[in-house]
Amino acid sequence: xxxxxxxxxxxxxxxxxxxxxxxxxxxxxxxxxxxxxxxxxxxxxxxxxxxxxxxxxxxxxxxxxxxxxxxxxxxxxxxxxxxxxxxxxxxxxxxxxxxxxxxxxxxxxxxxxxxxxxxxxxxxxxxxxxxxxxxxxxxxxxxxxxxxxxxxxxxxxxxxxxxxxxxxxxxxxxxxxxxxxxxxxxxxxxxxxxxxxxxxxxxxxxxxxxxxxxxxxxxxxxxxxxxxxxxxxxxxxxxxxxxxxxxxxxxxxxxxxxxxxxxxxxxxxxxxxxxxxxxxxxxxxxxxxxxxxxxxxxxxxxxxxxxxxxxxxxxxxxxxxxxxxxxxxxxxxxxxxxxxxxxxxxxxxxxxxxxxxxxxxxxxxxxxxxxxxxxxxxxxxxxxxxxxxxxxxxxxxxxxxxxxxxxxxxxxxxxxxxxxxxxxxxxxxxxxxxxxxxxxxxxxxxxxxxxxxxxxxxxxxxxxxxxxxxxxx
Length: 473
What we know:
Blueprint: H1 8-35, E1 50-57, E2 64-67, E3 88-103, E4 109-118, E5 124-143, E6 150-155, E7 162-166, E8 174-181, E9 188-196, E10 199-201, E11 208-211, E12 216-220, E13 232-236, E14 243-252, E15 255-262, E16 268-278, E17 284-289, E18 294-302, E19 305-307, E20 315-317, E21 321-326, E22 333-354, E23 358-364, E24 369-375, E25 381-387, E26 395-399, E27 405-410, E28 416-420, E29 427-446, E30 449-456, E31 458-459, E32 466-472
Antiparallel strand pairs: 1-32, 2-5, 3-4, 3-5, 5-6, 7-13, 8-12, 8-14, 9-10, 9-11, 9-13, 14-15, 16-22, 17-21, 17-22, 18-19, 18-20, 18-22, 22-23, 24-29, 24-31, 25-28, 25-29, 26-27, 26-29, 29-30
């Protein structure tokens, strides 16, 4: 049988004729009903519930990341009466692997190459042109003493139109600063919603900000968010895309109580949070419910599989509320949390190191990836924590700050797996045939204890040309 393709003009003529016939037939039916004394009624199709299709990226779209830049100490002058030296160290790293070029702030422009690296990561956005490219970046802040004692990594994140920042608190002793980067060619208006323990928090007139093309805006929230022990922020835009992180800091009187940079959590009816560390201090699971009253359940997975946690099934959560659930009582070790609900939720987990003083690291819910990365700079100890719904054998490539490959390891992931990174690792690339979820836990010595931070893997397939599409079934 032969198949013929009609010329475009002929096809248009046929389609036009069909439309005319359908229109004339419709008029004939209406006329017949009117002649019979009946009423002509146009019936709308029954309304249907929208079904959300997963986020997709246009094939061949440039890979982009938005970087907020270095952590900025907001405890001006401090409240400690002691004369101390904070001993602050700033480092950063950006790594791109694949075939193509990278350009971004601080004059970085690289030609064709398999690996591009820099230790001068500035606020702004980086983008690539090429194929098979994985792009990751981040800037590290380490204060060994003082009010901002601790470790914080500001990761470069994927620009998007909808972002949930789950973590921190507001009130006396807390600081919160939003960093919003616009990688687009036009200004973008970003709407901001805040949620607390009892529901939405009133931001007054600070419900939206405009960010100029190519710019990074610092937006202080102190004094704008009502006092609340647990908060979450929801940022959206109707056009364009943005990258956002939340810098947070806490003082307990005159004692440092943690610094961190919170990156967006992947929302959904299932949230996966790898990298939970249970030590002497108990981690805290935070869940925000933007919809109606509902319930959620928590399951923990360790290297040996599922771990039962009493009292974590069908936990009620009110509409528009934020709920914290302590993981105290769970045996010491490393875990992945899987939070499931009947509707859309956003979640994160706070790791804690020490008590007084202490440091904290908020871990986001991550998206599965077959090729992702993270970068932070030199001088930290790192552990990659991975999770998969199937048995997987991902490879982890460890790189120095100059882009030199240190080694490649294969990790056995049977629901969960981990790898201690070699010394001098400044960034990693994870590759897997089976999708995995991943977090890099970082640590460094500080006065009287350990500073901690956590970064979720940035997927190589992300781009600004992403959108959530709702259709009716």
